[in-house]
Specification:
Number of helices: 17
Shape: globular
Strand content: under 5%
Order of helices and strands: HHHHHHHHHHHHHHHHH
Radius of gyration: 24 Å
Helix content: over 70%
Distance between the termini: 63 Å
Structural class: mainly alpha
Number of strands: 0
Length: 415
Amino acid sequence: MYGYILKNKLLITGSFIKNYWMTIIGIIAALMFVAWRIYYVVPLIENISTYFIYVKLGCILWVFFKVYIKKQPPVVINPATLHYLLYSKHLMYILILQYVLHFLFAFISAFVISFIMCRFVLSPAVFQMAVFIGTYLYTGFLLSWIMYHSRDYKTLLKIGTVFTLTSLLFGLSDGILSAVLNTAVIIGSFIFIMRLKMDWNKYQQDLIYINAINTAGARRDMVQMLQITEEHQAKRKKAFYIYHFSLNQRNALSIKMFIETIRTSPRIWVILTCFIAFGILLIRTPVFAGIPLLGQPEIAVVIAVFSIATFYINVGRIFEKQLLTLLDKSRKGLFIPFGKPVIIRKICIVPIILFTSGTLIIGAFLSSRLIGIAVFAAGYNLLFLLRLFIISCTNRKLDILFSTGTLLLAYVLLW
């Protein structure tokens, strides 16, 4: 039985390698380049311990993503395996194997991070840091597994409390206390999982979707992958609906915009955030020092400006699409008891809050001057409002002018 499961896994993996071997080679080459840069740059950093706070922040964000944002199950097996072994002891053995594999992944990742932070010198400090990071990452995996199967208020409160305590202690301390707390949480999570009533129906449906996507991907059938994804998204339960809020004429459109923003795919936000992270690493860290073009300060600033502007331009287009959809429905007969200026004013509340708060965070990471942050936030919000008014009145987007204005403002943010 276990041989058939392994054989099926190897067949799908072989199909992926056969159809995506060029992409895999490119990924391996990119990873080798990143590893070479890390090996070259880390010894040049005088006080590398100051960067450990960014490692902690990255781990906390990763765990937060796994627990609260990612919708897919953290433990993935073949749906046929679940169907035929649901009420047998063999399913428990397979799940235990998955727990062990995730445990190894968490601690191997933690060891690699610790080895880099200790300047590639194997010492007891490496193992101590690996335990410190690994226990936290594995705690995040178990919390995400519990969150996936149970979303009642008591469980959500327990998970929120545990996540907050472990993350605060992980971020504020470097000692053994955090590892001890995480170990206690891991033991408590296993006890909770043993008593937890699993949502097997939801789990099976998601496994069927993942298996269908993987099978279509192994055949490189992009059309079927897109069709399966759209059907799955249409069936997925939404966390928020507009009737969940207290509505009136003043907040109806703002709440609609807020809900649509939340429903935007997390992958889009992750990709756009990568542009910001790249810009920050480019001009505020020595990661790319010594690389032709990227290592030159003048060129690095230009590339960073383009990265930051790309983030804001694409986020603006997300909100612009929502406005165009609403105006199109209005033209087709949907009655909206407001004029276009009022619609834009009410819709822009959510984007302005997002842009302003995002600019404050990005400016802090870039060590920008307060006046630069204020000028960029005010200028971009005004530019965004002007763009929406032009689109609503003339149906012209003026992409070139809007992108140019965003690039100029991004230079101000880097003052």
